[in-house]
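Narrative summary of target 7.
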Amino acid sequence: MMSPAAPIKLQMPIPRRAPRALQVLIGCLVVAAALCSHPVMAQTPPAAAAASAEVVSPIITPAALKALIDKKANLRILDIRELMQGDGKTPNYDAGHIPGAIAAPYSSIRGPEKNPGRVPSDQELTQLFRKWEIDAQAHIIIAPVGSDASDFGGAARLFWTLRLAGLKRISILEGGLGAWGALGYPIETTKNTPAASSISVKLDRTQIATTSEIAGLIRNRTSGKKFLLSDSRPEDYFLGEDKHPASPRAGTLPGAKNHDHEEWFQLNTSKLLPRDQLESIAKNAGLIGDQDVITFCNTGHWSATTWFVLTQLLGQSNIKLYPESTVSWSKSRNPMDNEPSRATVLKQQLKDSVDNLKR
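Modeled conformation, tokenized:
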């Protein structure tokens, strides 16, 4: 069933950060009497071969998406919110979604609690993408909540994963579901269950930076190979003043430079800055040039945005993402910059214990 939008609170988990509102008001369904279906996930039309060759923009506006839906384009709209909000009771997808969208929770492509940035195996992704009816012909639309910069990181991480699987027709919905609902575009509560595709995933793992690879680069800095380690986390993480719960140590990778992922966005939004401003920021940060860039954060979430901006919007090809990031690095015996002293760590642990007792 489908109707014009009315407000509803929607939520998806984001990596640990200073407390922020994770819920945004977007369109909710006003239940109608008639049941209608939207054939946006129909069989590939006769012109599929030509369509699959068309280049699509990595960012798509709500208006452009609505136009594609209206003309029954071959789409796979992935609603990446978790199925339930943080209370475990309030539904997200079932309460209302973009017509034709399927539930594709971001957590589906994440690793375990102790290593959230781990990339799923080819077999795991094959099963998942078949379930979502992913194929090379469809135009894949990634629909995040649209709440803030951190929320965009989930969409960028899924985009990166799809690209490594060889898929090219992918776009992220600008402003996410919040922007869609704010424009009064229709939503539905119909649960869309696509037919399984026959895709077989083989990730291009040469584009995945690993702990051992980076450790080797750092050991051989004097060899003359140019590379830059870009830490996409907020400054307090970079300086070792905060850390991810799964990280045993705080700090950053040796020689890394701090480029907070939020610098790419319009203030307090999930919308990226205009291209000329993105390019200016990247140049000033030394992220555009002939040296290789490896971007990382805690779990390859915030840094996926940096990868997305540099590769998809600014055309850089010498960029790698380190998906397991500092959570993995801090568990190794490799050194870290800005790592707090043992005394500082013990003092913080004592403070945390006292604070917990007061709650």
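The chain is about 30% helix and 15% strand.
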